[in-house]
Structure formats: C-alpha cells, structure tokens
Amino acid sequence: MSAVRPLLRVGRAAGAAAEAGRVRATLLTCAALLLAVGLGALAVAQSSFEGRAQRGENRGIAPVEGREPAALLAALRTDLVGTTSYTVVSLVPLRADAPPPPGLDRWPRPGEAFLSPALAAAGAGEGVSTRYGRLAGAIGPEGLEAPTELLAYARPPVEVTDPADEEWFRATGFGGPRSLTFGESGNLPPPGRFHGALAGLVLLPAALLAVVAVRAGAAARDRRARLLAVLGAGARARAWFTVGEAAGPVLAGTALGALAFVPAMLTDLPLPGVDFVLYRPDALGALPRLAAALAAAPVLLLGAAVLLQPRAGGAQRGGSRPAVRRARLHALGAVLFAPALLVTVRGTELLPQELRLPFYVLGCATVFACLPAAVGVLCSGLGRWLTALGRRAGSSGTLIAGRRLTAHPRATVRLVASLAVALGLAAQTQLWGGVFGDLPARALATLDRIGSSAVTVDYPAREERLAAFERALPDGVESAVLRVRTTGDGDPAAELIGSCAALTALRAPCGTDPVALPGGGSDPRLRELVSWGATEGAASLRVREGPVAGHRGSDTTSLTLLLVSAGGRGAGDGPAGTGGPAGTGGPAGTEGAGPGGPAGPSDALPVGTVKRLAYRHLGPEAEVNSIGGLYLTGVGGLEAATRWIRLLAATGMLAVTLAAGLGALAEFLRHGRELAPVGVMAGRATVFGSTALWSLLLPGVLAVAVGTLASVWLAAPIQAGRPDVVSLASLAPASLAALGAAALLTAWGAVSAVRAARSWRPVAA
Asked: Residues with Cβ < 8 Å from 134, sequence gap 6 or more?
C-alpha cells in the first residue's frame, strides 16, 4: 500500500498538467455523473415497479372460490379522461363488518364515489367529479399504485344495482396472491421494456461519453505509458498511476450523481415531461440497490480507464522505442458491424414474441457501438488512397490528411462516434414515438374527423332503465338504436331505428319504410360507424323511423344505442376520449360545419353529462364511447411510453452532445499542435483547411451516411406492417443537422490549427 499512494499522487499531478487535462477532467466528471444517474435510475425503477406491484396486489379484489362467504359485490370497467384510460371499481358491501378497500376510510354510500386526486384534477373539464355520483372524498395514497394514478371507487344507485347483471362478481375482500389487480400499470411499459429503453437510450450514450473521456488527450498519455514501461514500471504500477489520474473527477461526478437522488428520498418527486411522480417509499426501498449502483459507477469508469490504456510490455523489437501492443477493439468492431446489423434485423423477426424486444435493444446497442469503428476502418482504407492522390496532385493537405487517417484510425472513431450515436438516438426516438398500433391510429383519425358528434352506448337490456335514460338526455341530443342480426347461413342485417330528428341529423331519409344506405350514406358519422364494423359486415345499413325502446337483444341480435348531436354549437362539456378542453370535442384548430354541413368537433355532444346519466340510469355496465373509441384505451399507454422515450433520449442526447463537443475540443488541441510546424514550413494557411476537410469532414459525412442507412434498416422489424415512421425522408432533418455539425467541427478544427501555428515556436530537442 505504501507504493500505491505515491503512484496515485503522481498520477493525479500528471493528469492536472497533461495535454487537454482540464477537458479530460470535465469529461470524466460528466461521464461519472451520467453513469451514476443511469445505474441509479435502474435501481430506483426496479424498486418502483416492485412497490406498484405490491400495492396493486394489496388492493386487488379476491373473487369468491367454492363456498367462501362473499363480503362484497364488485364490477370493473374502463373509462377515459382524454385518451388516458383508468379503472372504475363499482362496489357494494354485503356485510356490515366488511372492511373497505385500501385508501378509503368507509364504504361509498349508494350514488357516491371516491376519486383519486389526480383523476379529480385531470377530469375537471369533463365532469368527472359528478360522473359516478356525489363526490364523497379522495382515495388515500395507500390505495393508489402511485400519487398520479387515475382511479375511481363508486357505488351505483340501488335501482341499477342488480347482482344478476353479468358485470358483477362476488368477492371475499381485498388483497392476496389470487386477487384481481387493476390500475394504471396497464398504461406503463413493463419493467423489461423500460430497463431496455434505459440501457439503450441512456447507458449506451453514457458509455460512449466514458470512452471519449478516458481517451481524451490519449497521444500524450500513450507516450507517458511507454516511458513508464521503459523505466521498468509494471502493469500494476501503471494501472495505479492511471487510477490516480482519473480518480478525482470520477469520484466528484459520482458524488454529484448521488446528490441527484436526494430529493426523491425526502418527498414524492415529479419527473419532468412524463406526468409521473416517484413515490418516496419506493425511492427509500431502493437504497440498498442504489448504493450498489453508485458504487459500481466509479469502479466501471476507472476500470475502463485502466483497460483502454496501451499495454506496453517493454520488449524491444529493434530501435530505441519500446514495443507497444495496441488494442484492436476498433478492428473487431468494424468486423462485427455488418453481421450485427443483419442478425438484429432478421433475427428479431424469427424469435418468439417475448424475446424480440430484449434482442432488438441489445442488437441496436451493438450496431451503434460498432458503427464508429466501421467508419474508422473505412477511413483508414481511404487514407491510403488520399495519400496517393496527394502525391500525384502535389496537395500537401490531402497528403497529410491521408497519412493521419491511415496512422490514427482510433482518433477517427472517437471523432465520429458521437455523430453516429446521435443519429441512432434520433431514429429510435422517432420510431418509438410514432409507431402506434393500427387500430389506435385509426381511432385517433376518426376522432379528428367527427370529434364527439356521435357516441355509442352499450347498455343492459332493461327497457325501464333505457326509457329513464332517454328522458334524462339534454336537449340537442337525439338517439337511435342500431340492431344487427347475424345468422350462420346468411349476410348480417343491420338496421338503424330512431326518431325523425335523429335520422335527419344523420342525413338519412325519415320514414317508416326501411331505406338502404350503402356504406352508411353521406353522413361521416354513419360511414365511420360502418367502417368500424358496427354493422358486423352487412353490405348496407337500413334506416327507418321508429321507437328506440322495445327492442330485444339475443345471441343473434345485438343492440347498440347511438347518440348524435342535432348540430347545436358549443353544446359539449368534454370530449369522449380526447384531450381537448370542454366544449371542443376534438383537437384544437378543427371546425365543424354545424347544421347542414359535415359533423365536426364543434357539434360535440355533452359527453360528460351523457356518461353521468348512463351511470345513473343504466348502471355501471353501460359503456359510452366515441365511434372507434374502444381502441383509444391503448393510446394513453402509447403516449406514456412515448413521453418516457423522449425523456430518456433527451438524457442520452445530452451525453452525446458532451462527448461530441468536449471530445472534439481535446482532439483539436492535439490536431493543432501536430499541424502547427507543417503550416509554418508550408508557408500558407490553406494547408489547414484542406487537411481538416479530408481528416474531419470526410469521416463525419461517412458516419452520417452509414448511420442513416443503418437506422432505417434497424427500424424495419418494428414498423413492419405499419406506415413507415422512420425512412430516409423522415430522417432527413436529423441527417442534415448531423452534417451541419460535422461541417462545424471541420471549421473549428481548421481554426484551431491556424491559431496553434501562429503561436508555435520551435524548441530544442
């Protein structure tokens, strides 16, 4: 140990005085910070998933098995606020001593509801506070998976509570391994996917930053390693010397990373941009894992600093310079690039569904880790051609650039790695942020076209309930019933029956004799209804005037209530499955034509009122949806995943930006120092421009070209069968930005060389 301390001290002093020493220290600090935050985030995320699962199990409803006595009736259904789905739990206690669910201090009375604080706030513009009856209070934190969870516990009025309804089931209580769980977990990515995204979008760029940091100013340190080998220093002594160089900045960055988790230990911590609050008990539960992750960050980074140094054995092969066995990782990466790309694209399609995503994430990380090495080897080969071209043309700049590219391929790898990874991050963010499922995408398009000017109501076959519901509907809301009969040996028959006012609002003929409307006729709402399969594939929709009540459903006959706006502007009190404000019924900036024109968002129904009346009169089994709205329940989960991807990608892009900027600065310091004597001897400054053009811009252009093509090909397994989200055209802005960055780096390198040449003075050897 006595020999280690001097080596650590000398290493620390050498690092502070080395070429690009301050740049390297800054890079090491940032790399340690991001690596600590990334590994710590993995630990905290796992604890959060486990805490959510435990709280979800504790409040889960345990169905009756065998002859167990029932304590309550329960019914689960899904509703929407905007495009975010949430669970509504209808409860009826059967025993006076039955304990209420976690988070409630008492059972809701008939016609009462308890809402989570987040649901009350998110649904304020859609009348959620009265949708399920009188608001009795808020659900406590122990009854929620997370502070921002949307959840409702409700007890319907006595007159619509019938245990015989198929939606109800008997339960013994709450909690236990066999309980039925529910809640917002369905809107969050599963743990494996989240960990994969965190590894690919944050840890991979952090690893890139770590490599750039470790090798910043590498030329001078490589010469020093050879000198230490000549003086007799062994591998262990050189390793401690290297640790002493990097330990200070690495430990400082790790300490900053640890401080980033302190707020989560003190309070519930909202995360920016993802509508997510990290629950304090989950963060505290992650402390053992977090401590291990924070301890691993400096060990990994210092280990990389030791392993990526040249291994000088000291054996002489002639001459006065010690032999150095240089690492060949860049050559190995270049060889692996093409096979990794092919295996990732084709192998993903061949694996079972549950293995595809982990394999794809690992493959993408491998491809973009190998891509800079492939570009470096390609540039090394082009360097020989440039050398010959420079000799023939008499261009000193081309000759110098060719020799530099041939002799220093790893410097090229470090230079272009940031551009390649930045392109990969941009493509993956665009891919996962834009790939919606086919049906959710269609549902959003339908919502854009017709807004909430029509909704469907699936209701129990109780005539007295339906009559009470119709009487309670507000003015301007007309109803019709869609009756579809299916038989095994004939085409389905679809018939829409309603009042003359309802048929007129739908631009259908008003009369007691049925009239066929192929494809739904001219009204966009009917056309959307037919396109979504509500007519069970019937060739045409027949319409006639008649009463809505009095129809019977059966195994071969389905009944769906259709509510339409008669054209009253501004009647809506909130969209059915949209995120727009009250009264819009759809995205901002769209207009409906009003009476006589196409139905649009401005003809919105008062959906919040309709849902409240449906729950009050039809019971918890009634479902109110916009046309195609059943598939909007998946949109909230996709949007949540997209927000997470953007947050993680933004963190990764920060690492890439630091690697590109500070790493290039370190390279330019060396670039300018090496070219300064050449510029003085050449007698003109143009040699710097031509050298920078070939040695800096050419690798950048190649990295952008190869990275763009690889990104498009890597997107193929994910967007197969869907519209192309990632294509050459869609990546054009990111590619142009990367080319602009390459041009900026080239100009920066040329200017740095000119400045170094002006201040250069010869010194005695």
From this structure: 111, 112, 113
CA 759 vs CA 23, 79, 672, 681, 754: distances in Å: 20, 71, 10, 14, 9
Residue 178's closest CA among 66, 60, 59?
A: 60
Give Cβ neighbours of residue 459 (< 8 Å, ≥ 6 apart). Answer: 465, 466, 469, 559, 561, 614, 618, 621, 622
Report pLDDT digits (tens) over 193-238. Answer: 788 888 878 888 888 888 878 877 666 666 676 677 766 666 777 7
Listed in order, strand segments (DSSP E) in 230-345 are 269-271, 276-278, 311-312, 324-325
pLDDT in tens, 635-656: 766 677 777 777 877 777 777 7
Cα separation, 398 vs 383, in Å, equals 9
Kind and range of the H or E element at 149? none
DSSP 180: B
> How far out from the chain centre does Cα 19 lie?
40
Collapse the DSSP code of 545 into the 3-class scheme (helix H, G, I; strand E, B; otherwise coil) and give the result: strand
Mean pLDDT (whole number) for 442-455: 82
When pLDDT is cut at 50, 70 and 90, the band that residue 598 belongs to is: very low
Nearest by Cα to 139 from 121, 109, 174, 114: 114
429-463: b (≥16 Cβ within 10 Å) or e: bbbbbbbbeeebbbbbebbebbbbbbbbbbbbebe
Q: Where is pLDDT greater, at 759 or 649?
A: 649
CB under 8 Å to 334, separation ≥6 — which residues?
A: 370, 373, 374, 376, 377, 378
Q: Is 426 helix (H, G, I), strand (E, B) or coil?
A: helix
Separation of first and last alpha carbons in the chain: 37
Number of alpha carbons in the 13 Å side-chain half-sphere of residue 182: 24
Assign residue 163 a region (left: φ > 0; alpha: ψ between -120 and 50; beta: otherwise): alpha
Asked whether 576 and 82 are in contact (CB, 8 A), the reply is no
Q: Which DSSP category does 593 fall into?
A: -
Task: Give which of 579, 611, 644 is closest to 447, Cα–Cα.
Answer: 579
Condensed to tens digits (0 to 9), the pLDDT of residues 333-389 reads 778 888 999 999 888 878 887 788 788 888 888 888 888 888 888 888 888 888 888
CA distance 725 to 713: 12
Q: What is the 8-class DSSP label of residue 125?
A: G
DSSP string covering 438-496, please? HHHHHHHHHHHHHTTSEEEEE--S-HHHHHHHHHHSPTTEEEEEEEEE--TTS--EEEE
Two structure tokens written together for 40: 């710590």
SS3 assignment, position 150: coil
Q: Residue 288 contacts by C-beta under 8 Å, 6 or more apart in sequence?
A: none
Exposed / middle / buried, residue 748 (Cβ in 10 Å: 0-12, 13-18, 19+): middle
Residue of 431, 416, 432, 423 lying closest to 733 (CA atoms)? 423
pTM: 0.73
* Backbone region of residue 217 per phi and psi (left: phi > 0; alpha: psi in -120 to 50; beta: other values): left
Q: How far apart are CA 419 and CA 605, in angstroms?
A: 50
513-556 pLDDT per residue, tens: 888 888 878 888 888 888 877 666 666 788 898 888 777 777 77
